[in-house]
Design a protein that fits this description.
The protein is mainly α. It has a domain of 94 residues. The chain is built from 20 helices and no strands. The longest helix has 29 residues.
Length: 429
């Protein structure tokens, strides 16, 4: 009887010991760098998915990771997984001082010494050593964890872009393909967008924008990506037809569509691509009405794109209705330039536009003369500091046969236009 009770007590005691041992083991494993990194990766996926407070939680997790490393016994790094986790933590924004301190205490031979040396170079901001270490071979061939390799590749990209853009683009392709739907892919797309624009890779830009819209439209970094798209679109729009451009821009949010068309219209206007400026301004104006926002900038670009076309009279009226104070400061020189060009298209006294009969085409008129229908224009004051202006077309008509005078006058007009154009381009830079 006593033996039976003793056996029962011993069995119960053994169960308690095993439970405590397992519990301690689980707690220890959960607090290990390897397990903490897994939790951090889950938070990164939440950032890519755009979950509430994901960015804040990720920052808190990084801080907690660093604090936990201070308390981690060196024996934990007898497991190579924890060393890999420690170095991955470094490359995803961890505290470099903590990582460097631990790496110098960990015995050699547990992981590749190339990896340790490259990580220390990164931690101590020895950029050249870091690049030399990790640019000499393909990381995936080393058998290191995928997250570690991708983190190192992303850290190499800024320098690689400046030295070998094509190679950097190929590397970003690799990152995107290896980690679809993750923060790695999201980050790679964001970094590749401007690079693709620099390389004038329109096909790649279409792919990146479509993938981002489909997979990461709710990302915590989405607004940054879309604003970047609006900024780089004018770099490649000249390589697209109006229809192709519209299809690309239709993939982005309406607000970004509006900004993109505005930027394209402005850039095209300065570059002298009036047809694209007109298209961009018209699309921006339509979007402004949909969004119920101020369309002054769109109307201005629309009018400015038309001042040197047969639609100049209507464009001049639109310019008359626009106040410089209603435009951004950077657009005010453009307004002056548009009015300047308008003076060169339609003849009028210096102080204002008056009733003017515009010429019709006839057999004895130069084909280069602007062709207008009869139109009455309202008074339209312009800046006094732009000097005396005249209509090139009218000058040719009135001075037929006086080639020298015409040539001199045209030269003076062109010099003024070139000066305004140069000032505008310097202002844009």
């Amino acid at each position: 009887m006593m033996r039976g009770k003793l056996r029962s007590y011993l069995f119960f005691f053994l169960i308690v010991l095993v439970s405590v041992s397992v519990s301690a083991s689980v707690r220890s494993d959960e607090a290990s760098p390897y397990e903490m990194l897994r939790s951090l990766h889950h938070l990164q996926d939440d950032v890519a998915a755009g979950k509430a407070d994901a960015l804040t939680k990720q920052a808190d997790a990084l801080a907690a990771f660093g604090a936990r490393l201070h308390q981690t016994d060196l024996s934990a790094f007898n497991d190579a997984r924890n060393i890999y986790a420690l170095i991955t933590y470094l490359f995803i924004g961890g505290d470099p001082d903590i990582v460097a301190s631990l790496l110098q205490e960990i015995p050699e031979g547990l992981v590749s010494q190339y990896l340790v040396e490259g990580a220390l170079a990164y931690a101590y901001n020895r950029r050249d050593d870091f690049l030399d270490t990790f640019s000499a071979f393909s990381l995936e061939e080393k058998g290191w964890p995928e997250a570690l390799c991708l983190s190192i590749y992303l850290s190499l990209i800024p320098d690689q872009i400046s030295k070998d853009p094509m190679s950097a683009s190929a590397r970003l392709d690799y990152i995107r393909l290896m980690a679809p739907g993750s923060l790695f892919e999201e980050t790679a797309i964001r970094r590749q967008l401007r690079l693709a624009a620099t390389l004038y890779d329109v096909k790649k830009i279409n792919l990146l924008v479509r993938n981002y819209a489909n997979r990461f439209s709710n990302s915590s970094y989405a607004s940054s990506f879309w604003n970047e798209f609006a900024y780089v679109a004018p770099m490649i729009d000249s390589r697209l037809t109006d229809a192709s451009l519209d299809r690309l821009i239709s993939l982005v949010p309406l607000r970004i569509q509006y900004l993109t068309y505005l930027y394209i219209a402005r850039t095209a206007l300065i570059d002298g691509r009036v047809e694209r400026a007109f298209h961009g301004a018209r699309q921006a104006d339509n979007l402004a009405m949909k969004l119920k926002i101020d369309n002054t900038a769109a109307r201005f670009y629309y009018a400015a794109s038309q001042v040197a076309t047969p639609a100049a009279p209507r464009a001049i009226k639109m310019l008359q209705a626009i106040r410089a104070d209603d435009l951004e400061e950077r657009d005010r020189p453009l307004l002056d330039a548009a009015r300047f060009i308008a003076k060169g298209v339609v003849y009028y006294p210096k102080s204002m536009i008056v009733d003017t009969k515009l010429i019709e085409k006839s057999d004895n008129i130069d084909d280069n003369v602007s062709l207008w229908h009869e139109l009455t224009l309202e008074s339209f004051p312009l800046p006094d500091d732009l000097g005396d202006y005249f209509s090139i077309s009218e000058l040719r008509r009135q001075n037929a046969g006086k080639s020298d005078e015409i040539a001199d006058s045209l030269k003076r007009a062109q010099e003024k236009l070139d000066l305004v154009d140069q000032l505008l381009k310097e202002e844009v830079k």
